Amino acid sequence: MRKFVILGGGYGGLALIQGLLNNHFPQDMELILIDRMPFQGIKTEYYALAAGTASDYDLRIQFPNHPQLTKKYGEVTSIDLEGKRVHLEGDDPIEYDYLTIALGCTDRYHGIPGADQFTNSIQTFSSTRQTYQRLNDVKPYGNVHIIGGGLSGVETAAELRESRPDLNITILDRGSRVLSSFPQTVSLYVEQWFMDHEVNTRSHISVCRVEDGIVYNGDEAIYTDAAVWTGGIQPVKVVQDLNVPKDPGGRVVVNTYSQIPDYPEVYVVGDCASIPFAPSAQAAGAQARQVADVIHALWKGETPKIHKIHLRGTLGSLGSKAGFGLMGKTSVKGRVPRLLKSGVLWKSRRHFG
Fold first, then answer.
1. What is d(CA 41, CA 56) in angstroms, rounded to the nearest whole number?
2. Mean per-residue pLDDT over the chain, rounded
């Protein structure tokens, strides 16, 4: 029996599974999902787990059951593209006829000494659990610093403020304003929300090293009781180690069909793929659905029709009652985008669960 292996059960991996199984999946093929966890973690909400406003259980979606789907739990250590096998920690290798890499991203520390050792992460379920423990063990009136003023940093700071009104919270950002990828009107709205809720923001911060309890901005020592890193992402190490062409961000260069050109039996989806979108759950899901259509067409001996991916926009939360976003070219602020984000989360749970 032929084997179609999918590495990673996140948004891209699950969307691909659904797209393959819902459209006459070949009877002589086994679909194998490999993930380190026995469920999908809703990564877009990890900031809430870290802050303590959502429970571990709230952010789980069970993987689907299907007669042709085998679920294998373990840590992928390497991918042998020439030998067509995946190596797992402490387990036998798994051979494949087709492979999809949808392993997501990890923190990018930009070579800053101590950043990986002395800051907390929200990139995996496990690391987010540890971040929750660290943040909620900070004593009243303690100092917490969020390094990075993008979407994840803003949502983490706002959610932590709602969870711990006693803490001194500061965002350290290298740019001139938080949410630099959004229109300035959105940044100003968020800045005002932070002022109203006593969250400090500092711009033009160039973190050069991190020590236990200290973040250095050049020669300035910023003392902290806990620091959370939201200052950049990159593909996971397994993908970094692949000897294939990559873009400047370390993402694998793929062709029109999302295949690695020299290995057409291998597809790359989501944060690991060099596609014309910023890494996001929405982009990963949309690309995966496109890949499922491509695969079915190729199996039928047809030329795949590539439809342009259109993303709906980006939504962010400021606690439970306010939010912000960008829908097309339209900025949205206030209660409505927060309600919209809650609706998207509900729909995602219902769709995948």
1. 9
2. 94
The CATH number of domain 2-36+74-106+233-299, selected from 3.40.50.880, 3.20.20.100, 3.50.50.60, 3.40.1190.20: 3.50.50.60
Which residues, at least 6 apart from 290, have a Cβ–Cβ distance to it below 8 Å?
Answer: 258, 306, 307, 309
The residue with tokens 């309600």 is 339
DSSP alpha helices (H): ranges in the chain? Answer: 11-21, 46-51, 115-118, 125-137, 151-163, 184-196, 237-240, 281-299, 335-352
Cα dist. 118→114, 153, 192, 258 in Å? 6, 17, 30, 37
What are the domain boundaries of the chain? 2-36+74-106+233-299, 109-231
Question: Whole-angstrom Cα distance, residue 197 to residue 194?
Answer: 5
Whose structure tokens read 């995948």?
352
What pTM does this model have?
A: 0.93
Task: Please state, in angstroms and rounded to a whole number, the distance separating the CA atoms of residues 119 and 212.
Answer: 9
Topology alike, domains 2-36+74-106+233-299 and 109-231: yes
Measured distance CA(308)–CA(291) in Å, rounded: 12
Rounded CA gap, 307 and 321, in Å? 37
Q: Is 202 left (phi over 0), alpha (psi -120 to 50) or beta?
A: beta
CATH architecture group of domain 109-231:
3-Layer(bba) Sandwich (3.50)
**Which tokens sit at 243?**
């000897």
217 close to 207: Cβ distance less than 8 angstroms: yes
pLDDT digits (tens, 9 = 90+) for 140-161: 999 999 999 999 999 999 999 9
**214: enclosing H helix or E strand:** strand 214-217
Structure tokens at 271: 């944060």
What pLDDT does 311 receive? 86
Q: Which of 94, 99, 103, 33 is nearest to 66 (CA)?
A: 33
